[in-house]
Amino acid sequence: MNNTVKNEAKSALRFLTSKRTAAECMRLRGDTLSLESLEGEIRASELALSGLHPDDRYLLEELYISRDGGSVSRLCEHFGCSTSTVYRRSRHAVTEFAMRLFGRTE
To answer: Taking the chain, what is the end-to-end CA distance rounded to the nearest angstrom?
Structure first.
């Protein structure tokens, strides 16, 4: 899988929380056309996440969605592994997420 697709997947994960917030704001303002598109993106991202192995989903949620400090340390402790192993596992999880979200490998 090429880096562009992986970067698109990481962006989708990073913005999932802000997309949810934006969708709520749009709903309050009464915006509909772009709200439907945004909600579709959210559903697609959530569906792709839900299809992952629970460990991969937890890892991606900690690294890219919650984004509060100390995620890597918590993941090392949770999985009982080193920092390099967390990042290696995250590369695998991002690849799996991207394949589910975009349905392509290149």
So the answer is: 5
The per-residue b/e assignment along 38-61, b for 16 or more CB within 10 angstroms, e otherwise, is beebbeebeebbeebeeebbbbbb
pLDDT tens track of the chain, all 106 residues?
677 777 777 777 776 766 667 777 666 677 665 767 777 888 888 899 999 999 999 999 998 888 777 889 999 999 999 999 999 999 999 999 999 988 865 5
Whole-angstrom Cα distance, residue 25 to residue 35?
9
3-state secondary structure of 81: coil
pTM of the predicted protein model: 0.73
**38: Cβ contacts below 8 Å, ≥ 6 apart:** 19, 22, 23, 26
